[in-house]
Amino acid sequence: MNSALKSIALPKQALAFLALLLAPVLAGCGAFVDSGDDTPAPQETAATKGGKSDPLTRAVEAKGGEDCLLLVWEKQDTRDEDFDRAHDMATGGAISCATNTSASRFDRVLKRLRDAATRRDKAALLSEVGIPLLYIDENGNQRLLEGEALDAAFDEAFTPEMLDTLAGLDLRELSVVPGEGGFFRLGALWLVVDEPGGDPKLVSVNAQALGEAAEAARDKSETAQGVAVGTGG
């Protein structure tokens, strides 16, 4: 099982669901996904296994990350080149290379998500969701939601805590996994691009990961307070 995904609080069963969910998207981007234990990890592309790589991977290998932006921009009618260059690097690598889109596209989607979550606007929020949505509850149980099932489970998936998290999303906190997309809060929220240069969609909501992220934040705060008290003493 892939160590990067294990570190962001996605249980094994959830990885299988996420692999199935992302397979059509990643196939169009030149990556592949298989949830079997004996197959390459989800973020491994054909290039990393010695096979034929996608154009973005070949560009990175040949000339570096700047070519990822050039290839992404070719797919966009409008773009903000200065912003994209200044904000392309995220935890885990370049946004353009890892996700097949630009930082400005992520930024504008995050703004729409923040606005929708702040207003508690269900319709606006669902317009940013990829269908089906992978929902993982606090106990690690997972469901793929769409149509009436998504509507019925909306309040369960988008709790006040999850909405507050969405309302506070910041591009500077984005982490990326090559070939898989971007995530926040240890995998509590995953966004994936379904076509090169396009806007990312929210494809996974993980309440279990959100709880673990909150616990990690509390531990960090308590540790910092302890250090401060010790120093002051």
What would you say about this model in short?
This protein has 233 residues and is an alpha+beta fold. The protein contains eleven helices and eight strands. The longest helix has 26 residues, at 207-232.
Describe what this molecule looks like in 3D.
The chain is α+β, with helices and mostly antiparallel strands. It has one domain (3-232). Helices cover 50% and strands 15% of the residues. The chain contains 11 helices and 8 strands. The strands form 2 sheets. The protein has a 6-stranded mixed sheet. A two-stranded antiparallel ribbon has the order 1-2. Strand 6 and strand 7 form a beta hairpin. Helix 3 packs antiparallel against helix 4 and helix 7 crosses helix 10. The chain is globular and about 50 Å long. Keywords: Signal. Residues 1-27 form the signal peptide.
Return the string of H and E elements. Answer: HHHHHEEHHHEEHHEEEEH
Fraction of residues in helix: 40-55%
Rg from alpha-carbon coordinates: 18 Å
Number of strands: 8
Helical region count? 11
Q: The biggest beta sheet, please?
A: 6 strands, mixed
User: What is the subunit arrangement here?
Assistant: single chain
Structural class: alpha+beta
Q: Please report the distance between the alpha carbons of the first and last residues.
A: 45 Å
Shape: globular
Biggest sheet, spatial arrangement of strands:
4-3-8-7-6-5
Strand content: 15-25%
Mean pLDDT across every amino acid position: 80
Query: Total domains, how many?
Result: 1
Indicate the low-confidence ranges by residue numbers. Answer: 1-9, 25-53, 58-64
